[in-house]
Specification:
The protein has 18 helices and ten strands. It is of the alpha/beta class and about 450 residues long. The chain folds into three domains: about 5-140, no CATH class; about 150-250, Response regulator (Rossmann fold, 3-Layer(aba) Sandwich); about 260-450, no CATH class. A six-stranded mixed beta sheet has the order 2-1-3-4-6-5. The chain has a two-stranded antiparallel ribbon with strand order 7-8. A two-stranded parallel ribbon has the order 9-10. The radius of gyration is 28 Å and the shape is flat.
Amino acid sequence: MKRSQLILATLSLPVDYVMLIAAGLIAYRLRFETIVTDVRPILFYLPIEQYLPKLALVSAAWLVLMALAGLYNLIQQLKFSQEIGRIFLSCSAGTALIIVWFFFNPTLFSSRFIVLAGWALSIIFVSLGRFTLRLLRAALHRRGWGVIRVLLIGRDITTQALHDLFMASPKLGYKVVAAAREPNLAELDSFSNIDEIIIGDPNIDHTYNLAVLNYCANHHLGFKYAADMFDAGVHNVVVHTLAGVPLIEIKRTPLDGWGRIVKRLFDFLISLSLMIILMPLFILVGAAVILNSSWPIIVSLPRVGERQQIFKLYKFRSMIKGADKLKAELIKYNERPDGPLFKMTNDPRVTSVGRFLRRWSIDELPQLWNVVKGDMSLVGPRPHEPAEVARYQANQLKLLNIKPGITGLAQISGRSNLSFADEAKLDNYYIENWSLGADLVILIKTVVVVLQRQNVV
C-alpha cells in the first residue's frame, strides 16, 4: 500500500474520535438548554471538567468497538451504506455497554438524556465524518493524489468493463496508465510508472498468470486478477468487487495496511527507548573505538532497503580505515561462494576492539537510529550492499518488499552458518507470514543467541 493510500485510509481513526467527542459535547450542552430543562429538570449535575475525561475514555472505547465492526479495514473498502450500518451497530453496542455500566455504578452518572442524545449524535456525526472523508478522497483521486497506477491486462469484455469503470470513476482511486492484451515478461519492463498489474481476462493461461504474479513480487508491484482464474497456493488473499467483477488481490505481505502501521509504531517506540537506555554503553564503546583506532566512531554504509531504496546504515566502526578498498583483494577468501554475500572468519581488516564488538553484536546498536528514522525495522531481512543486491536471483528480490531489519528469522536460525539460499527462504517465509507476535519471539531469541555467542562473525 502506497504511503498516500495509508494516509487517506488512516484518517478515519482520528476523524471518528473527533466526531465522537463532538457528539458527546453537544449532547452535554443540549441537556442544559431551556427546551430540554423545561421538559425534564436537571436532577444530577456533572461539571464539564469531570465530564470530559469520561467522554474521552468512552470515545476511545467506542473506537475499539468500531474496529471490531470492521470499520478500520485498510485492505477492503466498504460501501457507504455498509459503513453506516456498521457505525449504527458499533455505536448502539457502545451505548448498551454504557447503560449496563451505569446501571451497576449509578453514582458515576445518571443523565439518560445525555446517553441517548450521545448515541443518536454519534451515529450522525461519525457518518458525516466518514462522508466528508469520502468526498476528500474522491477529490484527491481526481487530482491524481493517492491513485493506484494500473497496467490492465486482457482482451475480453470483463477487462473492458474494468477499463471503462476506472476511466469513468476516478474517485475509485485507480488510473489505467497502460492496457495490453497479453504482454510477455520482457515487455512488462517497458511499462514504467505503474503501481499494480490487474489481469481482467479469465481466459488467460494459468502459467502466464503465475509468471506475472512472480514478476510483481520481484518488482514490488500490487497484483489483482479476476476470480476463478487459477488454483495457485497463495498467501494473503483479499477479494474486491469492481464493475460486478470479483477481483482477487494477492498481497505481497501481511505488512500492509494496519500491519505496517503497528510494526512502525512498535519499531519506533522500542528503538527510541533502547537508545535512551543504552546511551551510557554508546559512550563507552565510542571511547574504546577512539582509543583503539581513532576516529570515526560510527561509519555509514550504503545498503538497499525497501523497494530498492538506498540508505545509510550506521554501525560502530569495527574495521580499520579504508577497509572497503581492501575487500577486492580478499574476495578470493570468501567463505560463502553460494551467493552474493562476503564472509571471512578471520578478516584481517577487523580491529581488536571491533572483534569484541562483533562477537557480542554491539557494533550493530547504532542501527537503532536507522529504525527510528524509518530506514530499517527491528526485525526483517538482512540489509545488503547494492553490489550484493545486484547479484540477487529473481526470486530473492522479494526480500526487498519490506524494510530490512537489525535481526531476523535467518539470523536466529543459524546466524552466519546458513547458505544464502536458505537465508533467503527463511526471510521470504517471514515476509509472507509476518505477525507482531513473531517479531517479539525473534527479538527474544536474538538476545539468547547473542548471549550464547553462537557463530558470530
